[in-house]
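User: Can you predict the 3D structure for this chain?
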Amino acid sequence: PILLVIYGCVMPFLLLHFYVEPYQIGAGVIAAGDNVDWSGAESWFVVGPALIYVPLGVIAWRVIRKRYTPAAA
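Assistant: Here is the predicted structure, written as C-alpha cells:
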C-alpha cells in the first residue's frame, strides 16, 4: 500500500515535467521555460493519479491492518 501512495504522490510531478510541459511547448501554448498553462485539460489530468492511488493505498492499508492483525482472529 505504501507504494501506491508513493506512486500517487510522485507521478503527477513526473507527468507535468515529461508530458504536459513538452506537449504544451510543442502545441505552441507556452514558450520553452514558461510555466504550465492550467487552462487546458491535459494539465488537470495529471492530478488523476493522486486522486486515485493515494486513497486506494490508504484503503488497502486500513483493510490489511484490520483483517490481518493477530487481534482480528
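The chain has one domain: 2-68. The CA atoms of residues 25 and 31 lie 6 Å apart.
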